Amino acid sequence: MANYVKISSLGPAPCVIEATVPAEEAVGRMIAHWERMLGFVLPDKPDLIVLPEACDRPSKSSYPTERRMEYYRVRGNRIRDFFAGIAAKHGCNIVYPSHMQAEDGSWRNTAQLIDRQGRVTGTYHKNHLVPNEYNLNGILYGKDAPVFECDFGRVACAICFDLNFDELRLKYVQAKPDLIVFPSMYHGALMQNYWAYSCRAHFVGSIAGLPCSIVSPLGETVAQSTNYYPYVTTTVNLDCAVLHIDENGAHFRAIKQKYGSKVKIHDPGLLGSVLLSSETDEFTVREVISEFKLELLDDYFSRSLTHRCAPGHMEP
């Protein structure tokens, strides 16, 4: 059945706070900054809001490390609790990325998932740090790649430098999340599109000071913020599947003749694959796949590899 999810991604440049501003006042300014930014997307009633990496860290250009640690001490969980209040009030999920201190005093670069009731339901620790995050700031590398169960689907996370490493991407290829969220300071360019297609998942990039984007499982950018407005909201349908045209394509006409606009078959061109989605509450995309005996892209690739290695199929 159609699973429409409205997603907002925000990527303003880091909030500039002067080094002379006391930590208590800096926390108040940061909350006011995000209250203002959220005001641009909350009227659209999003199901999910994604914020950029270390979203509540004052700009490094004006707020030095020694001041930042005092700021973090005063901040504690107050800004997270602010976002939790917003999530509960507006009935939305929020991805809150921040530098977080563990109970043993060590630090992590994290993304916390806050649900519609304002509860933290999952935490991801950045797996692949830039070395100086450890060398200069004592942040430890994360080791797990959890996938979080949300009321609209399964969500995975990558943060900034993570996007350069196949180790993490391949974990998500196996886990098959519906959506990957990417809070970052680095844009990633084609890597965003590659991750989306490789993982057969929608992808949301929230990039501080750079365009935010929402990418389909075909690797197509379907929505993007602009140089004028550092936020974007769009609706995606998570009840979808990626299929290769080979063999499946013979059924597409019959599918459209039977179901019309209740099924969407989107061809991006040049890729040889399409995105099939159910646009109705009457049936799921998996039921259409079963009815017409369609083959998922990954299953087709797997069958092709097996066929290649069958006895007598490969040159001596």
From TrEMBL:
Keywords: Hydrolase. GO terms for molecular function: hydrolase activity, acting on carbon-nitrogen (but not peptide) bonds, in linear amides. It holds the Pfam family CN_hydrolase. It comes from the Bacteria. Residues 16-238 form the CN hydrolase domain. Gene3D superfamilies: Carbon-nitrogen hydrolase. InterPro entries: Aliph_Amidase/BUP, C-N_Hydrolase, C-N_Hydrolase_sf. This is Carbon-nitrogen hydrolase family protein.
